[in-house]
Amino acid sequence: MAVVAVVTLCVCQRKTPPVEQVSVAQSRPLDAAQEPLALVPAARCGECHGNMEKEWRSSAHAQSDASPIYRAMRTASGGKHCDRCHAPLRALAVGDPVAAEGVTCDVCHTIASVQVDRADGTGFLPHPEDNLRYGPLCDTTPHYFHRMGCSLLHRESAFCAACHNWSIRTPGGTVLSILPEYTEWRDSESAMSSFECPVCHMPGVRTEAAVGSRERSRVANHSFVLRGTLLGRALSGQVQIKPEGGKLRISLMLTNSGAGHAVPTGLPERKLQVGVETLDAAGRVLSQEEHSYGRVMVDAADREVPFYAAVKEQKDTRIRAGETRKDSFLIDVPKSGQLRVYVRWRPISAALASQLQVVPPRDEPMLSASVALPLLFRRNGESVTLKLQP
Ligand code: HEC
Ligand code: HEC
Ligand code: HEC
Ligand code: HEC
Ligand code: HEC
What CATH number does the domain located at 229-387 have? Predict the structure, then answer.
């Protein structure tokens, strides 16, 4: 797909009534003599955009300055440059409490252009001091509360790349990719990556975009649905279970058929846990064997460390967009109970969480398949094939 390095404000067809011609300078420096800026909290926008506010509050974006793992890593790393993407308004209005809303409405909707090739959080500048709110609608009527900035950039992956595209240079001079989702999407040949990020991450429904406005056919969901919904859609696959020399051979085929980038993507700390467990009749786990896919960032002594302390990427075993991965386990079996094969998403490993002194968040289920064990023995050497289900 053709993606230009510098995406400027779109020149889309302006229907009636005409919207003002807007021209915003790239990375305009803040004028020190300017009046102190009062930021608008999301709650104020919610007076007219109530659904969006509710959805946004449930999203990771609303937690970007507050999530416990983030606070712990911010402290441990010294916090250099973190605010650029996690609380971009802080530098523009020092001391204003609204900045702690993190990636809030007035971050995304006051961005007019994104310089994609600056993969460090400096490729965009919010302009909350302007009365313009940029969004993809180009047929709106200017409103007393804010003017409208028709911006097709907001429908493009390049917009998300403002923050979802980050590389750092280690003290040794190596460039390490920290957040690869945009470049993975851009460089992937998979059919799934022909969709722009908002198509998958901000699905639309027919409703009004503001209280009292006319219905529109596609108003974007702002909860950036991931847990439960998208996770279950990312992968598809099946598992074959076959007796082998008194044990059970479990062979998996997993395809990344639903994501426009590798799974997992985002932070290097994210992992995919693929495992097999046996359970007794009461559902207690009797045995468990697990493989972990992901990136491993290490320090000079080859120990796994959080990304900011890493000097290199030791391995990357994630499943690329469109890729099918085979894996297998050979396990002992009890005579009864249940066998479960699962795929789970792990936000951060227990070892790293304990290094950071945070409680590791729970694994999120993606896919699984279960079978009662006696069934396998009755089958006398034949294999059983099961579909992995969300
Ligand atoms: C101004 C910076 C910024 C922009 C622009 C931005 N994001 Fe984010 N996004 C973040 C940050 C920071 C987080 C991490 C929040 C947290 O978990 O603490 C995040 C989290 C997410 C998550 C959740 C990841 C998870 O593990 O739960 C998704 C999905 C996401 N963003 C998608 C998008 C998409 C799609 C776009 C474009 C429409 C976009 N973002 C635009 C900064 C941004
Ligand atoms: C008093 C009501 C009101 C408030 C408060 C309000 N808006 Fe709006 N907004 C509207 C109306 C009306 C529209 C046009 C809806 C339509 O035509 O479907 C709109 C449209 C938008 C659009 C789409 C612009 C485009 O061209 O695509 C964005 C983005 C937006 N608002 C963001 C915000 C943000 C961010 C805030 C808080 C800083 C906010 N709004 C506060 C009434 C309001
Ligand atoms: C991470 C960036 C991000 C944040 C935060 C965000 N938006 Fe949006 N918003 C978008 C994008 C991108 C679109 C366009 C999506 C599309 O049409 O595919 C959009 C669309 C809109 C629209 C136009 C209607 C539509 O669906 O096209 C309005 C109005 C709006 N947002 C209001 C808000 C309000 C109010 C908040 C805060 C509660 C908010 N947004 C927070 C990125 C964001
Ligand atoms: C074809 C649909 C699709 C497209 C296009 C897509 N994504 Fe995703 N994304 C998914 C699915 C499904 C998941 C859940 C699986 C996962 O976590 O890897 C996901 C997960 C994520 C996550 C959380 C990753 C994690 O594991 O923590 C982020 C962040 C994200 N996407 C950002 C983006 C950005 C930025 C773009 C555009 C450059 C994009 N996505 C394009 C479907 C898509
Ligand atoms: C270039 C933009 C950018 C910069 C700079 C940045 N981040 Fe992030 N960060 C993101 C995005 C986008 C995500 C969402 C990806 C995901 O969830 O996997 C994220 C997610 C995170 C998360 C996961 C939060 C959670 O609740 O799971 C942590 C922790 C984090 N970042 C720490 C940091 C620290 C510490 C710094 C500063 C040293 C930093 N980030 C600098 C963009 C950035």
Answer: 2.60.40
| Stated pTM of the model | 0.93
Q: Considering only residues 177 and 14, tell me which one the structure prediction assigns the higher pLDDT.
A: 177
For residue 196, give the ligand nearest its CA: 4
pLDDT in tens, 251-270: 999 999 999 999 999 999 99
Look at residue 377 in the predicted model and tell me its pLDDT. 53
- What spacing in Å lies between the alpha carbon of 160 and ligand 4's midpoint? 11
Beginning with the edge strand found earlier in the chain, give each strand of the sheet holding 285-298 in spatial order. 312-316, 285-298, 271-279, 338-346, 364-372
| Rounded CA separation 194/3 (Å) | 12
List, in order, residues 6 or more apart from 266 with CB less than 8 Å away.
164, 179, 181
- The model's confidence at residue 378, banded by pLDDT at 50, 70 and 90, is low
Do you find a cis peptide bond into 264, omega within 30 degrees of 0? yes
Instruction: Name the residue ranges covered by the structural domains of the chain.
Output: 6-163+195-220, 229-387
Spatial distance between the Cα atoms of 201 and 382, rounded to a whole number of angstroms? 42
CA 85, CA 124: separation in Å to the nearest integer? 10
Ligand closest in space to the Cα of 230: 4
Nearest ligand atom owner, CA of 45: 2
Report the separation in Å between the CA atom of 264 and the middle of ligand 4, taken as the mean of its atom positions.
Answer: 8
How far is ligand 1, taken at its centre, from the CA of residue 267, in Å?
A: 11
Ligand 1 atom closest to the CA of 202, numbered from 1: 35
Question: Which of 16, 48, 216 to probe ligand 2 with, by most ligand atoms within 8 A of CB?
Answer: 48
- What type of residue sits at position 112? A
